[in-house]
Design a protein that fits this description.
Strands 1-2-3-4-5-7-10 form a seven-stranded mixed beta sheet. It has a six-stranded mixed beta sheet with strand order 11-18-17-16-12-15, with helices on one face. Helix 14 (366-380) packs across helix 18. It is α/β, with parallel strands linked by helices and 751 residues long. The protein folds into three domains: 3-352, Alpha-Beta Barrel (TIM Barrel), CATH 3.20.20; 381-561, Rossmann fold, CATH 3.40.50.1700; 628-745, Immunoglobulin-like. The chain has 19 helices and 31 strands. The chain is globular and about 80 Å long. Bound molecules: beta-D-glucopyranose (BGC). Beta-D-glucopyranose (BGC) binds next to loops. Residues 4, 91, 109-110, 117, 164, 211, 290-291, 417 line the site of beta-D-glucopyranose.
């Protein structure tokens, strides 16, 4: 069990009614709508920098110190009682400065919606988006932004002005228990999609916290593991994903991670925080720690940490409180540094709108928000295999067997701090683990019921799938078999392997053996292996599909909407193909220091590793079928103004409306990259049958470049580059050559 929440296994109780009551101080701030002459920083017409400078001058030393130290927002009885002013069952709280009109910071997780912390007796019932991986599988930044705006509005209306979302850690480890929270394996795709989500969240005039910075790629040993990697490789992969997302969304906060990076903890890592984030990228927001990720006072602060989160509950000492005070007195930390920390925090509160638009509890339209989540889920579901047009489902079938994964009552969600509790209660009670990192929650949106509503004449029979022999009998007596299989993944532990748990491979194999048409629907955090793949007719990857997941699955299965998701992550054929066939670290000794050697793959993550090694995955990155068909033509490249642009035409050559995701990859003819090619652009296009659309994409110059340490920037080597257009990283249908001039690209954020 994860020590972060070890104590929460002692059942937490939250007072009835506590989740809707806002502490008095949260309502105070409306008083500050107009700027009294004595508080010029409250003038919304001034820019955030000026306002931060002004208020900083008025602050006492204690007020500055107040801003940099946070408290946990949930009770862990009997060990810990949340402090007054915090919101019950919440992630964190930093007191405000009412004298100056600076609100408290009420912090909530996370990327799929407004979570409740702890195994509390009462929950916030909120809308859950599909998992981050599912949203990324839409390859549709507009949907990600809408989803972000929706959960941001729920955060605001729940009394929160800091949302601990978007996770953009790349999938270096397909077994990572938190992959479901993140944006897949490619820096461009993850950066664009997570950036769009953060932009949406911040449109609610609150702070969004991009995380977990950086190289936090597995949960096993997450508090101690040392991620070893060359700096150039890191800048070309994980850090580039952060950089692209930060450029797209200007998140007002960054959360440093639990793990170490090249020896130093991420929250006391001068290279990550001071050098890359603040100096190279010129980041103006503040760095908050992950919960229990601070290990020092002056070392962290001097390395660039601005705020300690939940220090009272999870860190060994109140580092950015009493320890910092002593460090200031001894000169180990300068006054200028504390001023910078406090300034960054208030600047973000001004820049986000959190000061001018105080949060307050307000009604939430769960029905409308459920539709936002559903639209996202429908576009994120990936049709992996579809033999002989088995899907869309012929609802004329008389006897339909629906098997497994509690599909009669709900859909699965991912576990840990990001857990959103659903309206309508949990679809399945009593599952283990009940406490951290659980509970395991199925949202009450039943795929079976959604299918029944669409085929009232058919006879549906549900079987829980636990006994393969019973499954075989039911399948033999059915016209059509739909097997649901799932894999609960969670923060704080990794999946032991890519094999579906609970003997579900045997269930699917038993269904397939009966010789009937079999459709498999997977609800998993990320990739799994499929030993039965050749024996089933169709496979739909539904991830964790969120609040209205059952309806979303039914609509894709029946073809009410096209299948338009594409894989944001490679599905390996087996663990043997991975850079680390066996996970490093041992969950049984969580405190024993160890390292993971990410220089094995360096920047060649996911499809790049598979390409480089010539490995055949089970399903490649970018893959996903549609119910219609598309053709690409007129591929052209141009290099005007030092920018490579790629244009082409997409045509819907099938008989029904659909959406496609044409993908552009680039490959230097001279080689020299971490892998043969990189994703350089993509666009989701919606087309009526027979319709065409012209697409023009501009390639981010860093995706043509390599990191040059001597120049401290990116260098594009002059020469010929192959531009490849395809429906996945492994289905390239057109190629063109672009001759590119030498170019230097600065290290800073590109606008
Ligand atoms: C997680 C963070 C989360 C924080 C607050 C940590 O355990 O790693 O992602 O935001 O808790 O709940």
């Amino acid at each position: 069990m994860n020590s972060r929440f070890r104590a929460s296994a002692l059942a937490l109780t939250i007072a009835l009614g506590g989740l809707s009551a806002l502490p008095a101080c949260a309502q105070d701030h409306s008083r500050h709508a107009a700027a009294p002459a004595a508080k010029p920083w409250l003038d919304p017409k001034l820019d955030a920098d000026t306002r931060a400078d002004l208020v900083l001058k008025a602050m006492t030393q204690d007020e500055k110190l107040t801003l940099v130290y946070g408290y946990f927002g949930a009770d862990m009885k009997p060990k810990y009682t949340r402090i007054e002013g915090s919101l019950p069952g919440s992630a964190g709280y930093v007191p405000g400065l009412p004298r100056l009109g600076i609100p408290a910071q009420w912090e909530t997780d996370a990327g799929v919606g407004v979570a409740t912390q702890g195994s509390a007796a009462e929950f916030r019932e909120r809308t859950a988006l599909p998992s981050g991986m599912a949203t990324t599988a839409t390859w549709n930044p507009e949907l990600a932004q809408k989803g972000g705006a929706m959960i941001g509005s729920e955060a605001r209306n729940s009394g929160f002005n800091v949302m601990l979302a978007g996770g953009v850690n790349l999938v270096r480890e397909p077994r990572n228990g938190r992959n479901f929270e993140y944006g897949g394996e490619d820096p461009l795709l993850a950066g664009v999609m997570v950036g769009a989500q953060i932009k949406g969240i911040q449109s609610a005039k609150i702070v969004s916290t991009i995380k977990h910075y950086a190289l936090n790629a597995q949960e096993t040993g997450r508090f101690v593991v040392d991620s070893r990697i060359g700096q150039a490789d890191a800048r070309t992969s994980d850090l580039l994903a952060f950089q692209i997302a930060i450029e797209a969304s200007e998140p007002h906060s960054v959360m440093c991670a639990y793990n170490r990076v090249n020896g130093d903890y991420a929250c006391e890592n001068d290279w990550l925080l001071n050098k890359v984030l603040k100096q190279d990228w010129g980041y103006k927001g503040y760095v908050m720690s992950d919960w229990g990720a601070v290990h020092s006072g002056s070392k962290s602060v001097n390395a660039g940490l601005d705020q300690e989160s939940a220090g009272d509950a999870f860190d060994k000492q109140p580092f950015l409180a009493s320890v910092l005070k002593a460090d200031l007195a001894s000169g180990a930390v300068s006054q200028a540094r504390l001023d910078d920390m406090a300034r960054r925090i208030v600047r973000s509160l001004f820049a986000s709108g959190a000061v001018d638009h105080p949060v307050k509890i307000a009604p939430i339209d769960l029905a409308a928000n459920g539709k936002v989540s559903q639209a996202d889920a429908e576009e994120g579901i990936v049709l992996l295999k579809n033999d002989k047009g088995l899907l869309p489902l012929a609802l004329k079938a008389q006897k339909i067997a629906v098997i497994g994964a509690y599909a009669n009552v709900g859909v699965l969600s991912g576990g840990g701090s990001s857990q959103v509790y659903p309206a309508g209660g949990r679809a399945v009670q009593g599952l283990e683990p009940k406490t951290w990192p659980g509970p395991v929650i199925y949202y009450p949106s039943s795929p079976l019921k959604a299918l029944q509503a669409r085929a009232p004449q058919a006879k549906f029979t549900y079987d829980d799938g636990k006994d393969p022999a019973a499954v075989a009998r039911l399948a033999a007596d059915s016209d059509l078999v739909i097997v649901f299989a799932d894999q609960w993944t969670t923060e704080s532990e990794d999946a032991p392997s890519l094999t579906l748990p609970k003997n579900q491979d045997a269930t699917i194999a038993a269904a397939a053996k009966a010789g009937k048409k079999v459709v498999v629907v997977l609800e998993t955090g990320g990739p799994v292996t499929m030993p039965w793949l050749n024996d089933v007719g169709a496979v739909l990857q539904a991830w964790y599909p969120g609040t209205n997941g059952g309806d979303a699955i039914a609509r894709v299965l029946t073809g009410e909407v096209d299948a338009t998701g594409r894989l944001p992550v490679t599905f390996p054929a087996s663990e043997a193909q991975l850079p680390r066939p066996t996970l490093d670290g041992d969950p049984k000794t969580p405190d024993a220091l160890f390292s993971v050697d990410y220089s094995i793959e360096g920047a060649a993550i996911g499809y790049k590793w598979f390409d480089k090694k010539g490995l055949q995955p089970l399903f490649p990155f970018g893959h996903g079928l549609s119910y219609t068909s598309f053709a690409y033509s007129d591929l052209k490249t141009a290099t005007a103004g030092g920018k490579l642009t790629v244009s082409f035409k997409v045509t819907n050559t099938g008989k029904r409306a659909g959406k496609d995701v044409p993908q552009v990859y680039v490959s230097p003819k001279a080689g020299g990259w971490e892998a043969p090619r990189r994703l350089a652009g993509f666009q989701k296009v919606a087309l009526a049958p027979g319709a065409s659309q012209a697409v023009t994409l501009t390639v981010d110059p860093r995706l043509l470049a390599t990191w040059d340490d001597a120049a401290h920037g990116w260098k594009v080597a002059p020469g010929d580059y192959e531009v490849q257009l395809g429906a996945s990283s492994a289905a390239i249908s057109a190629k063109a050559t672009a001759t590119v001039a030498a170019q230097s690209v600065p290290v800073g954020l590109l606008k």
